Amino acid sequence: MENLLAKVLIRFFESVYNLAREISHHTQTINSSRFSSIGTLRAYLIVLISISGIFMTNESSAQVVGDYRTQQDGNWGTRNTWERLNSIGPEVWATPTVGQGTPGQNAVPGTVTILNTHDVILDQSPTNSIGNLVIGGGASGTLTVGVNATADFTLTCTGAVSISAGGSLLSRTDTDGAHTFNFQSTLVNNGTINFAAGTEQVTMTVSSTTTNNGAITFATDTGIKTFIGAVSNLATRTWTSTGITTTGNLIFRGGIANSGASFSAGGATFNTNAQAISGTTATSFANNVAVTGIVLT
Questions:
Q1: Which of 33, 67, 162, 182 is a Cys-bridge partner for 156, taking CB atoms 3.0 to 4.6 Å apart?
Q2: Backbone φ, ψ for residue 12 (5° rounding)
Q3: What is the arithmetic mean of pLDDT over 4-18?
Q4: CA pair distance 135, 168, nearest whole angstrom
Q5: Which of 187, 192, 185 lies closest to 171, judged by CA?
Q6: Which residues, 6+ apart, have CB-to-CB distance to 174 below 8 Å?
Q7: pLDDT for 15-73, tens place per residue?
């Protein structure tokens, strides 16, 4: 949200600067092709300021009391890892109290954000779902599932899941847990999703669309990855799931649109809904593909 506000302000002041130059030009030559009078310029400036104010108001109101953001590296289940938004007028963030707990422990937060430079380990299954999940602030930030134990963890997000450029959603390679991500809305990856080879088992379900504008890697044939909405692999981006060789462990129900640098899969199943594999670049499967009860084009 801070990045969006910065962009709005930059464009606003660029526009004001250009208008000032135009006004200066009016003192010498009237440019009737753009403006009929200085009064028109003033009116345009007022409209510009009003529109910018709307953008900034919307940006601020996007945050609600009960949202969480990181303040340092740490475990998900440790209160000192987080700050909670306790007020928006004025905006007050503070380490959550015992009663407030960690995200999803005692209530359903609207948005949970892992900020740049912070690495969080999912070391518990929150009692409640969370709303939106934002990983990274445009440069870094990581959520890693699993600890050095055999415990199993589940995270349910009812809102959008967004992985920013430089951000990462990862699994460990040295533990034996069986974990579950229930993403009940959209998944947008501008960074990295890497469920690496190892003993960690990750099941992930995305109930809406998946957009990959980064790199996605599923390196192990454990857990089930289900994509109910359409999957889009954007230009120059990569999808690698050759580690999944069992057809039932990678399921598509909304088709694939691939315009990326590569879409390399092992095995997969297409079921439930009529689907298409489309795009401008090749989509490859190294192992068996099952098409069950539908038409795949």
A1: 182
A2: -60, -50
A3: 48
A4: 7
A5: 192
A6: 148, 198, 199, 200
A7: 544 544 544 444 343 343 333 444 444 444 333 433 443 333 333 347 999 999 999 99
Q: Are 268 and 242 in contact (CB under 8 A)?
A: no
Token pair in block for residue 68: 């969480």
Q: Please say whether the dihedral angle defined by the alpha carbons of residues 52, 62, 205 and 147, taken in this order, is positive or negative.
A: positive
Peptide bond before 90: cis, by omega within 30 degrees of 0?
yes
Q: At what angle do helices 2-26 and 38-61 cross, to 10 degrees?
A: 170
- Buried-exposed string 105-126: b where 16+ CB fall within 10 A, e elsewhere: bbebbbbbbbbeebbbbbbbbb
Structure tokens given for 230: 């359409």
Distance in angstroms (rounded) separating the CA atoms of residues 134 and 2:
13
Tokens of residue 288, six digits: 């068996």
Locate 93 and state its tokens. 């963030």
